[in-house]
Amino acid sequence: MSRIANCFAELAGKKALIPFITAGDPHPGLTVSLMHGLVEGGADIIELGVPFSDPMADGPVIQRASERALKHKVGLRHVLEMVAEFRRDNATTPVVLMGYLNPLCAMGYTEFAARAKAAGVDGALTVDCPPEEAAELQSALDAQGLDTVFLVAPTTPPSRVAEIAKLARGYVYYVSLKGVTGAGHLDIEDVARKIAALRQQLPLPIGVGFGIRDAATAKAIAAAADAVVVGSRLVQEIEAATPEAAKEQLTRLVAELKAAIR
């Protein structure tokens, strides 16, 4: 059983909290400490963003995080080194790399999967890799026992959800609204209806992200979803904090979110 599957099994119906931060933001030397801070706050799974120069699915908050990381020349190899360092003290919390296809393609899917496995990565979510184009990457990940996490959008038709259901591993990430990360105007009732419909086709846990900014919203989403994904709000916390205070403030916010969904 993968670390992700084991995580959801151990939750036994309780809702998972999946925080996102960008590797290398605000400085590469802080990332592993921030990851441990997420766990101390109650993170069940960590989504770790791979910095990219053209993060088209992300709003300005996460775009700025990628820019800050790229100023320090943080690339995919550095991200894998960060995960390996995290694994020296944490062998249980799943880590999913979230980002774009180009860095994986540049490294080579087979090499990426092998390096990711060796580092202690548990899965990958590439937001610009549709299921129709995922065969080569998924084959490489499957060979290493890594999960391929797919996005499902409000506009995804049932026929395409059926295809994703065949390919997805670990969990499925439902994008709660049309737009980029950090956008507002989240319709909780509409999300609940969409999740109920998706459960008819998807056998995996469903995590919901985009637009979840506080404990109240997280609690409302958790009533319908299996997992709550929070990214932009946490990255804002990092952006506003001093490097010395970032871990403590991040841990506190994650703890508030965890308490809300439980």
UniProtKB/TrEMBL annotation:
<dbReference type="InterPro" id="IPR018204">
    <property type="entry name" value="Trp_synthase_alpha_AS"/>
</dbReference>
<dbReference type="InterPro" id="IPR013785">
    <property type="entry name" value="Aldolase_TIM"/>
</dbReference>
<feature type="active site" description="Proton acceptor">
    <location>
        <position position="58"/>
    </location>
</feature>
<dbReference type="InterPro" id="IPR002028">
    <property type="entry name" value="Trp_synthase_suA"/>
</dbReference>
<keyword id="KW-0456">Lyase</keyword>
<keyword id="KW-0028">Amino-acid biosynthesis</keyword>
<comment type="similarity">
    <text>Belongs to the TrpA family.</text>
</comment>
<keyword id="KW-0822">Tryptophan biosynthesis</keyword>
<dbReference type="Pfam" id="PF00290">
    <property type="entry name" value="Trp_syntA"/>
</dbReference>
<dbReference type="GO" id="GO:0004834">
    <property type="term" value="F:tryptophan synthase activity"/>
</dbReference>
<protein>
    <recommendedName>
        <fullName>Tryptophan synthase alpha chain</fullName>
        <ecNumber>4.2.1.20</ecNumber>
    </recommendedName>
</protein>
<comment type="function">
    <text>The alpha subunit is responsible for the aldol cleavage of indoleglycerol phosphate to indole and glyceraldehyde 3-phosphate.</text>
</comment>
<comment type="pathway">
    <text>Amino-acid biosynthesis; L-tryptophan biosynthesis; L-tryptophan from chorismate: step 5/5.</text>
</comment>
<comment type="subunit">
    <text>Tetramer of two alpha and two beta chains.</text>
</comment>
<keyword id="KW-0057">Aromatic amino acid biosynthesis</keyword>
<dbReference type="InterPro" id="IPR011060">
    <property type="entry name" value="RibuloseP-bd_barrel"/>
</dbReference>
<feature type="active site" description="Proton acceptor">
    <location>
        <position position="47"/>
    </location>
</feature>
